[in-house]
Write a structure and sequence with these properties.
Blueprint lengths: L2 H12 L13 H17 L1 H12 L4 H25 L7 E2 L4 H13 L4 E5 L6 H6 L8 E6 L7 H11 L3 E5 L7 E4 L3 E5 L12 E5 L2 H17 L1 E2 L1
Parallel strand pairs: 2-3, 3-4
Antiparallel strand pairs: 1-7, 2-5, 4-8, 5-6, 6-7
Helix pairs in contact: 1-2, 1-4, 2-3, 3-4
Length: 232
């Protein structure tokens, strides 16, 4: 698994930490979270993963549970921080501060390659998604947009875009999203370092594919969120 995919998966785990106040060795959600986190940390640093597993072994003791959870989370966040320093320097994936046009061109071309469906997850989507990016797609491609903040403001732009292009566009809102992800044709998955509206304006960002196994996990997660999200 490459650094970008590893970072994306660790961030997802950090955003979905189970409640350790209710921990029991027989708890499936806790076991799954601990198992996946341990496996991914081993890819990052096998020695740190040993410390993670050691702390996990003491979760069953109430007197040491708080300190064990602190160790688990500290290791997870340290891995994320170190990977975040690496990701912007990966070749052909980085866009430096001010490289707004380069990012726009890359994402626009990526979206234009879709033949069936585009599913974009971004908490801070705004109307520029239509003029700057989606105007290049085939009219046979359906579009789903999942946002969190100010999504209602997208409605006039959606109506104008659909009226002019006859494209199938659906927008939903959920408070459960944190990542910036693009799914193409139900197969490939691309992770963005920043929200589309701010990408490469003043900070480095990246646009990188996830491995197939990580992409499927990510897609399953967001399909579940989509089913309970609110349509605008």
């Amino acid at each position: 698994m490459d650094a970008v995919a590893l970072l994306a998966e660790l961030r997802a785990l950090a955003n979905n930490v189970p409640d350790f106040e209710t921990y029991s060795p027989a708890s499936r959600p806790h076991a799954e979270w601990l198992g996946k986190t341990s496996a991914l940390l081993r890819l990052w640093n096998e020695y740190e993963a040993v410390d993670f597993n050691r702390a996990a072994n003491f979760l069953g003791f109430h007197i040491t549970r708080d300190s064990s959870v602190t160790t688990l989370l500290n290791l997870l966040y340290r891995a994320i921080a170190e990977l975040e320093l690496q990701v912007p320097t990966l070749p052909r994936q980085a866009f430096g501060p001010g490289a707004v046009y380069d990012f726009l061109k890359s994402l626009r071309e990526l979206l234009a390659s879709a033949t069936n469906e585009i599913f974009i997850v971004d908490p801070y989507l705004d109307e520029q998604i239509f003029d700057s990016y989606l105007s290049a797609i085939s009219r046979q491609v359906s579009v789903r947009l999942l946002a969190r903040e100010h999504a209602v403001a997208l409605k006039p732009s959606v109506q104008k875009f659909v009226s002019q292009t006859s494209a199938a566009v659906e927008v939903r809102v959920s408070k459960s999203i944190h990542d910036r992800v693009v799914f193409l044709d139900g197969r490939s998955c691309w992770v963005l370092g920043q929200s589309i509206k701010d990408a490469a304006k003043s900070m480095p960002t990246y646009l990188a594919p996830l491995s197939d196994d990580a992409a499927q996990l990510k897609k399953d997660d967001y399909e579940r969120i989509w089913t309970t999200a609110t349509a605008i």
